Amino acid sequence: MKLLKEKRLTLSEKTARLQKELLRALIVQTAIPICLSFAPCMLSWYTPMFNLKLGKWLNYTGAVALAAFPFIDPVAVILCLPGLRKRIFGEGKAKISSLAVIGMNKLF
């Protein structure tokens, strides 16, 4: 970072856009575990300390949230990144390089 600041290198518009998209995906990937895993666990841990009786629904909700995390996390990343979103949902055609196709053909 220091070298970039010293030389005053500028990023191309495409690189800057890609960096913003990746940062947004990283923020979403950070927020999902906090909301789905950490929050229900902390709530169920602290409710007895404050003598709150929330019942069994909290345990059930926490279990469902923890079980849903492996599905929700990749779906959120797919929805955040336009290249993946176009590939999955077919909004236009995402370009595949010919090298990738040749490499896949060699695998099978």
From TrEMBL:
Membrane-spanning parts: 21-45, 57-81
Keyword Transcription regulation recorded: no
Short name of any one Pfam family annotated for the protein: 7TM_GPCR_Srj
Protein keywords: Membrane, Transmembrane, Transmembrane helix
InterPro entries linked: 7TM_GPCR_serpentine_rcpt_Srj
Protein name: 7TM GPCR serpentine receptor class x (Srx) domain-containing protein
